[in-house]
Design goal:
Layout: H1 11-33, H2 46-51, H3 54-60, H4 68-106, H5 109-112, E1 116-121, E2 124-131, H6 134-147, E3 152-159, H7 166-180, E4 187-193, E5 196-203, H8 206-217, E6 224-227, E7 230-231, E8 240-241, H9 251-266, E9 270-276, H10 284-304, E10 312-316, E11 335-342
Length: 348
C-alpha cells in the first residue's frame, strides 16, 4: 500500500495521512497481510476511511506549489510502516501462543521438571526437548495442541532416558514434603540426589508412612525412595488406679477422664480401647470380671462427659499390665489404661 501525491501537500494532510496509515496498521494489519489482490475482499469500512484523505487535498490544492519530493517521502514511509506493522502484529501473536503453550506444559507436574522449548513460526507450533518415554512425549503434544488448536503441531521432542532438571526436581520434592508435613502426626525431612530420595522422620500411623513413600515416588526424576521413617503411635500415658476389690472412681479420676475426652476430640479418627487390670490375688475368674467392671465404669464416665460410646471398647484382663513387675506395689496392677487404635469402617 502506498500514497502518491502530486504537488506539495499541506501539513494538515501529511499529519492526517500518517494517522490514517497508523490506524490501518493497528486495526487492519491482518486484512492487509492476507490480501490476495481481489478488491472485493476489502472490508467496506475501509473505503470511507481512506476516502477522507482526499477532501482536504482538494481544498488546498491550488494554494500550494507542487513538490514531488514530499509525495515520494510519504510513499516510502508507507512502504516501511506497513510491513513493519504487520511484522509486529504477527510477532506479538506468535509470542502469545508460545507463552500459552509454555505455561500449560510448566503447570503439568510430570513435565515441569524437564526442559521443553516452544516456537511458533507462521502456522506451525514446534516442540523441542527431551523426555524419558513416549507417554510423556504424547502428553506434551496433546497439551501444547490444546493451547493452539488452529496451528499445525511439529513435535520434535526426543524420547530418551534423560534426567530431569535436578533443580526443578529438588524444588518439587521440597514442595511435596511441605504438603505431607501438614498432615497431623507427620514430621519428616527429605534429601534428594542422583535420582534417589531419602526420607527421615516420624509418623503416628503406619498408613501415613506408606502414603508418604507413594507420593514421593510419583515425582518425576525420583527413581527410588529410601524410607527410614519411624512409627511413633500416639499414646495416652495416664492411668486410673483402684482400691482392692473396688470399681469406684474418685474426684481425681474425673480429671483424667476429661483429658481422655479431650484426646478423643483431638483425634476423631481414633477409637479408644479401655483395658481393665487386676492384681493376681484371688481367683482368676473373679479377677477377670472385676477388671472388666473397672473398664466399664471408666467407659460410662467417658460417656457422661460426652464421648461417643461407639468409639469406646472395653476389655478385662485378669493380671497386671505388662510393664508392672511382680515386686512392685499391687496398686499399680489394679488399674485401667487406654490404648488409641485406628477406627475401622465396616463396608456392606
Amino acid at each position: 500500500m502506498a500514497v502518491v501525491i502530486k504537488g506539495e501537500p499541506p501539513d494538515s494532510f501529511i499529519k492526517k495521512t500518517r494517522e490514517t496509515v497508523s490506524n490501518l496498521i493497528l486495526n487492519y494489519a491482518k486484512v492487509i497481510h492476507e490480501f490476495n489482490g481481489d478488491p472485493g475482499t476489502i472490508p467496506e469500512s475501509l473505503h470511507p476511511f481512506i476516502k477522507t484523505l482526499f477532501d482536504p487535498l482538494q481544498k488546498e490544492k491550488s494554494t500550494k506549489p507542487p513538490i514531488a519530493l514530499a509525495g515520494i517521502g510519504l510513499a516510502a514511509l508507507s512502504l516501511i510502516l506497513v510491513p513493519w506493522g504487520i511484522y509486529q502484529y504477527r510477532s506479538s501473536v506468535e509470542r502469545r501462543l508460545e507463552a500459552n503453550a509454555v505455561a500449560a506444559l510448566a503447570s503439568t507436574p510430570e513435565l515441569a521438571v524437564y526442559r521443553l522449548d516452544v516456537a511458533v513460526d507462521g502456522k506451525t507450533l514446534k516442540l523441542t526437548g527431551k523426555l524419558p518415554n513416549q507417554e510423556l512425549r504424547a502428553q506434551a503434544e496433546k497439551i501444547a495442541a490444546s493451547t493452539a488448536p488452529k496451528l499445525q503441531l511439529d513435535n520434535r521432542i526426543i524420547a530418551v532416558d534423560v534426567p530431569p532438571d535436578p533443580v526443578l526436581t529438588a524444588a518439587e520434592v521440597q514442595r511435596i514434603t511441605a504438603v505431607l508435613n501438614q498432615r497431623e502426626g507427620v514430621s519428616i525431612s527429605t534429601r534428594y540426589g542422583d535420582r534417589k530420595l531419602t526420607v527421615e522422620g516420624r509418623v503416628r500411623d503406619s498408613a501415613d508412612a506408606q502414603k508418604i513413600a507413594e507420593s514421593l515416588k510419583q515425582i518425576p526424576g525420583v527413581q527410588s525412595v529410601i524410607s527410614t521413617v519411624k512409627l511413633e503411635p500416639v499414646k495416652i500415658t495416664t492411668r486410673i488406679y483402684f482400691e482392692q476389690g473396688t470399681t469406684k472412681l474418685d474426684s481425681t479420676d474425673e480429671e483424667i477422664i476429661a483429658r481422655v475426652k479431650n484426646f478423643m476430640d483431638q483425634y476423631p479418627q481414633k477409637q479408644i480401647k479401655i483395658i481393665g487390670h487386676s492384681d493376681q490375688s484371688g481367683e482368676l475368674a473373679k479377677n477377670q470380671q472385676l477388671s472388666l467392671r473397672r473398664a466399664t465404669a471408666v467407659r460410662d464416665a467417658l460417656v457422661r462427659q460426652g464421648a461417643n460410646p461407639k468409639r469406646l471398647q472395653t476389655v478385662g484382663v485378669a493380671h497386671p499390665p505388662a510393664d508392672v513387675e511382680p515386686n512392685q506395689p499391687r496398686i499399680l496392677s489394679r488399674c485401667v489404661l487406654f490404648e488409641p487404635i485406628t477406627k475401622t469402617i465396616n463396608s456392606k
